[in-house]
Amino acid sequence: MIQTKSSSTSLVLDQGLDGVDLSARPRLVAPGSLLNLSSTLISLSVGGTGLQGRFPNDVFRLPFLQKLSLTKNIDLRGNLPKSNWSSSLRFLDLSATSFSGQLPDAISALIYLNVLDLSSSNFSGKLPDKIGNLRYLNVLDLHSNHFTGEVATSLSKLSQLRSLDLSFNNFSRQIPDVFGNLSKLTDLDLSFNNFSGQLPPSAFNLPQLSLLDFSDNQFEGHIPYQVSGLSNLFSLDLCDNLLDGRVPSWLFTLPSLVTIRP
């Protein structure tokens, strides 16, 4: 769908083709043809369209672009540009694609970004140290990639974050206690990594938390008593770690808890 704003100059606002099969002839569309889009485009959504080949970096630089969704195009390849992103970007979804490479430092300049979903792709390397600059971020979903190393301490600055999913990666070492300022967080998933050391205490002081999954890591120690204060907790999974001690009886008294794997 293309919408235009009534004026002497036509302004392309929205290009939405989700679910349209662009891979079938005679409709075959090469990603490079997207460079012919108007420079005034603010939204491009082509999820599940069968796009194939390499995605052009210059689309990320369209000056007014606010939303870019390429999800569910598994044969679409690309890397994120290292400079000159559209500073207007608020929504970026590259999930279930074949995008790869590292997250460049330049992504920290997208200060108005609300949603960053790179899940089920082929990204690798460490998180940029300045990822905490994305202070309006509500959703950060990086699950099922190949990220490594320690989690950036600047995550503590993402005070608007509601959902954080780092599961199914290769993060390692003791996770810094970065959750104290994330009071709006409802979903926290760090499962299937190589985290070690003590469970981060501040993760159990988040009043809105409904899902907490730290399973399949190498965390040590006891289940902290602070869990007893999570009245909104619906699902808790701490299994397949190196935790010791008995499962505390108070864990089964949480009012909202439905699923538990201690």
What would you note in describing this structure?
It is a single chain. The chain is an all-beta fold and 262 residues long. The protein has a single domain (2-261), classed as Leucine-rich repeat, LRR (right-handed beta-alpha superhelix), CATH 3.80.10. The chain is 0% helix and 28% strand. The protein contains no helices and 21 strands. The protein has strands at residues 2-5, 11-16, 43-45, 53-54, 67-69, 76-78, 91-93, 98-101, 115-117, 122-125, 139-141, 146-149, 163-165, 170-174, 187-189, 194-198, 211-213, 218-221, 235-237, 242-243, 259-261. The strands form two sheets. Strands 1-2-3-5-7-9-11-13-15-17-19-21 form a twelve-stranded mixed sheet, with no helix packed on it. It is elongated. The relative contact order is 0.08.
Provide tags for this entry.
Leucine-rich repeat, LRR (right-handed beta-alpha superhelix); 12-stranded mixed sheet; mainly beta; disordered N terminus; 9-stranded parallel sheet
Give the total of domains: 1
Question: At CATH's second level, what is the architecture?
Answer: Alpha-Beta Horseshoe
Per DSSP E runs of 2 or more residues, the count of β-strands stands at 21
Helix content: under 10%
The overall pLDDT, averaged over residues, is: 87
Structural class estimated from helices and strands: mainly beta
Radius of gyration: 21 Å
Annotation field: number of helices? 0
CATH superfamily: Ribonuclease Inhibitor
Question: What's the shape?
Answer: elongated
The CATH class, by name, is Alpha Beta
What does the main sheet amount to? 12 strands, mixed
Determine the N-to-C terminus distance.
Answer: 48 Å
Look up the CATH topology: Leucine-rich repeat, LRR (right-handed beta-alpha superhelix)
Measured by DSSP, the beta-strand proportion falls in 25-35%
Biggest sheet: strands side by side, in what order? Answer: 1-2-3-5-7-9-11-13-15-17-19-21
- Which consecutive residue ranges, at least 5 long each, have pLDDT under 50? 1-13, 17-28
- H-E string: EEEEEEEEEEEEEEEEEEEEE
